[in-house]
Write a structure and sequence with these properties.
alpha+beta; 2 domains; 3-stranded antiparallel beta sheet; 4 helices; 7 strands; elongated
């Protein structure tokens, strides 16, 4: 039985372990690449005409988020002096690549979320202690095949968020940087 006269908090909470969690996003928003439709509108890619493999239940058209006309305008402004026919072809191929990427989602790439988590322990008195977990806010809609350096930057942002969260709850963070460097080599707050 717990002694009611014992101190509720015998020691400041301390970090036992830190980890990065990368979780599959089961409801991703891929609209930054484009959307499928059965309605013909300006700028669509005809998946049948382009011989892009789709299932029978798939819509026929793909509307890229970054339209071919916008790509052409941007490519003309980049100052490379490419012939207009080359620019049109490159813009068209880029839109097709976006459609193919959406179709490959879940096969060779996926969207995920990244969070940092700390396991914190604190004494309750009378020889009892508890372990609780704190998490960063997390960042979602991260492409799994992003550049490793970019993924490390996101991991570091989540570690920084986690550290602020722990400090807000008066957790002893004196070992945080060491633990964080063990899981993300480039961690230097």
């Amino acid at each position: 039985m717990r002694n009611p006269d014992a101190d509720d908090l015998v020691s400041q909470p301390t970090i036992k372990k830190i980890k990065i969690k990368e979780e599959y996003d089961d409801a991703p928003d891929l609209s930054h690449l484009g959307e499928f439709t059965n309605e013909f509108v300006d700028g669509v890619i005809d998946l049948h005409e382009e011989r892009i493999t789709t299932t029978s239940w798939m819509p026929r058209y793909f509307v890229p988020a970054y339209l071919e006309a916008e790509r052409i305008k941007d490519m003309r402004a980049d100052g490379t002096g490419r012939p207009m026919e080359t620019i049109r072809n490159l813009a068209h191929l880029a839109c097709i690549d976006d459609a193919k990427r959406v179709l490959r989602h879940g096969d060779d790439w996926y969207m995920m979320g990244i969070t940092a988590e700390a396991e914190v322990t604190y004494e309750m008195g009378n020889g009892c202690s508890r372990i609780t977990k704190f998490e960063s806010c997390g960042i979602w809609s991260v492409e799994s095949d992003s550049e490793p350096r970019y993924l490390d930057e996101l991991r570091i942002e989540e570690l920084d968020d986690l550290k602020r969260h722990l400090e807000r709850f008066n957790v002893d963070t004196s070992n945080f940087n060491r633990l964080a460097r063990e899981i993300v080599e480039g961690y230097h707050p």
